[in-house]
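User: Can you fold this complex?
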Amino acid sequence: MADDSEMQEKIKTLNDWIQGSDNIVFFGGAGVSTESGIPDFRSQDGLYHQQYDYPPETILSHTFYVRHKEEFFRFYRAKMLCLDAEPNMAHKKLAQWEKEGRLKAIVTQNIDGLHQKAGSKNVLELHGSVLRNYCEKCGKSYSAEYMRDSKGIPKCTCGGDIKPDVVLYEESLDSQTLDEALRAIQQADVLIIGGTSLVVYPAAGLVDYYRGHKLVLINKDASAMDRRADLVIQGKIGEVFGALD
Ligand code: NAD
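Assistant: Here's the predicted assembly.
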């Protein structure tokens, strides 16, 4: 009961901060989409706890992609392409706050395109998107459905291999996206961080650029960042956002 009233108090504080701001930035990770049925990496039922011939961070590396492309695409189609997933309350509220002029940007480590599916416009995708795919030879673009329906290594009409526009381990982040994310976070009034273990760099380092005093952390599990936050809400982000205006 005491826990419940403490949670109500925290939700009220967050609601007040959101309603009183026109410069909210959201920084999120895989935990934002677990309530849409897409597994994250590090939760108990996440991909790191499932058994494969190689660990996911090995399969999702540039070296592995170059050396074992067919194996890469087997994993990619089975685990990374979740095209039937629908946005949950977290995606929907963020889109609503943007429309209301409260939220300036979403900085996401996710590659699933669910923020855009919910209607968000200014989404800075640090790790790219499964929705964009390009021929490595001629640059022609392909849909995610084409990738899903292809067999083995997806091929372009020119004969080249098609690569998802997703940042693999060992690859660098797009510098313009990184710059825009950094600027948005630097200028934010309220920074809400949600559904991320904050262990993947350089993305996680962006949080250090926040200068304000309304740093909110919403995560299912405790994280190393908890003591730096002004407000920590431990819970499922879709449920928490569902309780907000
Ligand atoms: P992560 O798996 O390392 O961490 C997820 C975090 O979210 C954990 O702390 C977990 O406790 C929390 N979480 C899970 N479900 C939650 C919920 N419903 N509400 C609140 N918190 C919840 O993910 P990460 O920090 O994003 O970093 C790993 C990498 O995973 C990223 O680079 C990202 O590109 C990639 N990834 C993306 C997707 C996607 O696009 N949906 C899915 C899997 C992995």
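The chain has two domains: 1-38+87-127+171-245, 39-81+133-166. The radius of gyration is 19 Å.
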